[in-house]
Write a structure and sequence with these properties.
heterodimer, A: 536 residues, alpha+beta, 12-stranded mixed β-sheet, 4-stranded antiparallel β-sheet, globular, B: 313 residues, mainly alpha, MetI-like fold, 2 domains, two-stranded antiparallel ribbon
């Protein structure tokens, strides 16, 4: 290569120039230009000849913001993969708009008196895409697979599940080591998805490349980073709710290009529209926009005990400094500027409209005077810390606004832009002071707090550990009654939000845009697209 | 020629070996534990441990290299842990896409760049020359992603003539395939055409000023013969080199263009694999494209022999 490069340089030095005589030059230019014109005309003809609309009427085309990972519910790890699963794999239960549990493959459930056995009655007449029958044995197989398959990402979600007992063809018992209230909600997600035991056994190492489930659409094709094609399953148990023959999911990472595809009619539906495109879209007559408050949150995680760094910095060391930091923030302002108003301010792991929002700890108002007083009391009027921020433009915007707001109270924040994978690694090692991190959220609040605050849990980046909080977290898991659980969450909030290992900022909106002809769309807070009922 | 060819071929083997070592070692410099990143949002410890074991992350570096290279020798590039597909399959899927895009882009570049370069040199200081130079400057200074988005807005959103993005296999629908490839191929070809035009012009100007060209004209040869047969044949050598290098670059993936037009080629595959720390995919694809690059350079050297008789002696 070096030799070639040298040759290249040696032969491209321009020499002194002697132009051609004018008549020769003119004839030459004319002949070259004529040949170029012929080529250009041929290309133009080719383009014009090829142009024609060619759209399948029964196909729903959905633009995704990312390429999903493996399509095996046991191994899958990405949020975007769950969107595809919503068309491909039915679950034992689903959630509705108000996060209520609704039947899907299980038609009813019953807890034992000690809350340690969950009995499920299964839907009769359901078959997998390979024609195999769905029954209690299939449920047992799937739950055991979730628990035992090497690399399973569901094992942690089903940890208290000790055994599964087939009572009869359509009844199954889930036996737990201890009461576990989030179980039903867990079964509304990937842990509740059922795949064909026969297909899973036939290709244990590559099942995810050709999944066989029991949802409304069956897997047809996947070209990595290009498309996932699902075809209507003729024997679906609820086939009257399905009005498309095919769904094509297309990952298009750039939100501008995704939107251009919608506008050009190449897509019928796009998820995660950029917030600054919403006002323009609302003005257009061809599209509808949906906005759903997410189950997760955008927050600033503070290293309060993960490593020695916590004690070296006033923010990690002193709860008063963290309180001052929180008081310096105008959450509504952040949502307005960073997300064009597309978000809900919040100070907890669930949004204020959730049943489990702890009303005893409301969103504090910005109070610079109080923040300054707290910093003075802590003996650090001008604390300085580094805020590790993923490189996405949204995260950068939030970090810059936080930096400017906190400065008014005396904080000196340095923004450290870090590639996401690297930032996770640094957070895991405790090599950070503060970390702007979002969480996609789970339908049960347990999924938003247990792994973050219980001692030594994998997502406990703050390094937070308090036996009394651990006890409350475990108590919330063993209580089924909603009112009682709400009380426990209030106790947890009173304790944790006083310590502020995470300063919650806001809950993003899932923003969808779709062709106005598309009807029957349900806006469920998990941000997944239910295909049942969708009609064009 | 045979000796030269064999010598160059022999040099390819240590180069490829060096490339494998470099790919493997450089990848280790990427920050972050790949098992943690692949484990996704939940960070399930069981998953992390499994992935670590699958990727042999607990073993020393030379042992891991040994696992990989012994697989490569057997034609097994490993599996993508993210999407559970063999890397070989991914390469097979992406290669036709990347090849087609590269070939179309190169065709556009050659069709525009070389004639424009010749016109510019032959008609130096004329309006054509200035026009060609302005075109070259525009092609070189226009960012691909920007031009891509503008083209989408014009041809897809406003006019509705072309699909905004996506890829259709030619075996599935040739018409749809060409429609989906026109814009990305033009965006890529446009930039290369500008480079080719500049180099063609420069090389032609140099050759047109030599004694043998003057002699050819003095003998009364027709101007098109002088330019095409005598001058261009000598001037084309650096263009071949440049073409091979540019084509090699295109084959390793046009990241931004593929991203904007959602073309599932090598560029998009590598970028996603790097961000997700899907090591087997990064290693396999980079090795494959590096080898193509090396082979193209070898072919460019061989092409010298065919074009330039002096090298044959």
């Amino acid at each position: 290569m070096f030799i070639l490069s040298r040759r290249l340089v040696a032969t491209t030095i321009a020499p002194p120039i002697s132009p051609l005589p004018a008549p020769l030059r003119a004839s030459w230019v004319a002949s070259i230009m004529a040949s170029m014109n012929v080529i250009a005309a041929a290309l133009l003809l080719l383009v014009v000849g090829l142009i024609s609309a060619n759209v399948g009427a029964q196909t729903l085309r959905i633009g995704l913001a990312e390429d999903p990972d493996v399509l095996d519910p046991t191994l899958a790890r990405s949020f975007v993969g769950r969107i595809v699963f919503a068309g491909l794999c039915d679950k034992l239960f689903d959630i509705d708009e108000k996060l209520g549990i609704v039947p899907q493959l299980a038609i009813s459930y019953q807890w034992s008196t000690d809350n340690k056995i969950l009995t499920l009655k299964l839907r009769p007449g359901v078959t997998f895409h390979d024609g195999e029958k769905f029954n209690a044995a299939a449920v047992k197989f799937n739950l055991e697979r979730h628990k035992n398959l090497p690399g399973s990402s569901r094992r942690g979600e089903l940890l208290p599940l000790t055994s599964i007992e087939v009572v009869d063809e359509m009844t199954v018992k889930l036996i737990l080591s201890a009461p576990f209230s989030p179980l039903l909600t867990v079964l509304t997600d990937r842990a509740g998805m059922m795949v064909s035991p026969k297909a899973a056994q036939a290709s244990p190492n590559s099942f995810g490349s050709k999944p066989v489930c029991s949802g409304p659409f069956k897997f047809a094709d996947r070209v990595a980073q290009d498309r996932i094609v699902l075809e209507r399953y003729a024997n679906y148990w609820d086939k009257s709710a399905i009005h498309f023959d095919k769904i094509i999911y297309q990952p298009i990472v750039d939100s501008t290009v995704r939107l251009a595809n919608l506008r050009a009619g190449q897509l019928d539906f796009i998820e995660r529209v950029a917030s600054n495109d919403i006002s323009g879209l609302k003005a257009e007559k061809k599209f509808n926009v949906a906005s759903i408050t997410e189950l997760g949150y955008q927050g600033i995680t503070i290293n309060t005990g993960k490593s020695d760094i916590a004690q070296k910095n006033p923010l990690g060391r002193d709860a008063r400094v963290r309180e001052a930091f929180e008081l310096s923030l105008d959450r509504a302002g952040i949502v307005q500027v960073a997300a064009d108003g597309e978000g809900e301010v919040g100070n907890q792991w669930v949004a204020p409209n959730s049943t489990y929002y702890a009303k005893n700890v409301p969103v504090p108002k910005r109070d610079i005077a109080r923040a300054k007083a707290l910093l003075k009391e802590a003996g650090v009027p001008n604390p300085s810390f580094t805020l590790m921020t993923p490189t996405t433009s949204d995260a950068q915007k939030v970090a810059q606004i936080v930096q400017a707001m906190a400065k008014e109270a005396g904080f000196d924040i340095k923004i450290q832009s870090t590639e996401f994978a690297t930032s996770l690694n640094l957070a895991d090692k405790g090599q950070f002071e503060a970390y702007l991190l979002n969480w996609s959220g789970r339908a049960d609040p347990d999924g938003n707090i247990f792994n973050f605050y219980a001692c030594k849990q994998p997502l406990n980046y703050p390094g937070y550990c308090k036996p009394e909080v651990d006890a409350l977290l475990n108590k919330s898991r063993s209580t089924l009654d909603v009112a009682q659980r709400s009380k426990i969450f209030e106790q947890i909030a009173a304790e944790v939000l006083k310590d502020r290992p995470v300063v919650y900022v806001y809950h993003r909106h899932w923003l969808w845009a779709y062709n106005k002809k598309l009807t029957g769309l349900r806006t469920i807070p998990d941000g997944l697209i239910r295909v049942q009922g969708l009609k064009m | 020629m045979l000796t030269y060819f064999l010598k160059r071929l022999a040099a390819v083997i240590p180069t490829v070996f060096f490339v494998t070592v470099m790919i493997f070692c450089l990848q280790q410099l990427l920050p972050g534990d790949p098992a943690v990143i692949l484990a996704g949002e939940d960070q399930d410890q069981n998953t992390v441990a499994y992935l670590r074991q699958k990727m042999h992350l607990d073993e020393p570096l030379p042992v891991r290299y040994g696992y990989w290279i012994s697989g490569v020798m057997r034609g097994d590039f490993g599996d993508s842990l993210r999407i559970q597909q063999p890397v070989r399959q991914l390469i097979q899927d992406k290669l036709p896409v990347t090849l087609e895009l590269a070939a179309l882009a190169m065709m556009i570049a050659l069709l525009i760049g070389i004639p424009a370069g010749i016109v510019s040199a032959v008609a130096k200081d004329s309006a054509w020359d200035y026009l060609a130079n302005i075109f070259a400057l525009w092609g070189l200074s226009t960012p691909n992603f920007w031009l891509g988005i503008l083209m989408i807005l014009l041809f897809s959103v406003s006019l509705g003539w072309l699909p905004a993005s996506g890829y259709v296999s030619p075996s599935e629908d040739l018409k749809a395939n060409l429609l989906s490839m026109i814009m990305p191929a033009f965006v890529l070809g446009n930039a290369i055409a500008a480079v080719l035009m500049r180099h063609t012009r420069s090389a032609m100007l140099q050759v047109l000023n030599t004694d043998y060209v003057r002699t050819a004209r003095a003998k009364g040869l027709k101007e098109n013969k002088v330019v095409l047969k005598h001058a261009l044949r000598n001037a084309i050598m650096p263009i071949i080199t440049l073409g091979a290098l540019e084509f090699g670059t295109l084959l390793s993936g046009a990241v931004l263009t593929e991203q904007v037009f959602s073309i599932p080629g090598f560029g998009k595959l590598i970028v996603d694999a790097v961000f997700n720390r899907d090591y087997a995919v990064v290693q396999g694809v980079v090795l494959f494209t590096s080898t193509i690059y090396i082979v193209l350079n070898l072919l460019a050297d061989m092409a010298y022999f065919l074009v330039n008789p002096r090298l044959r002696g």
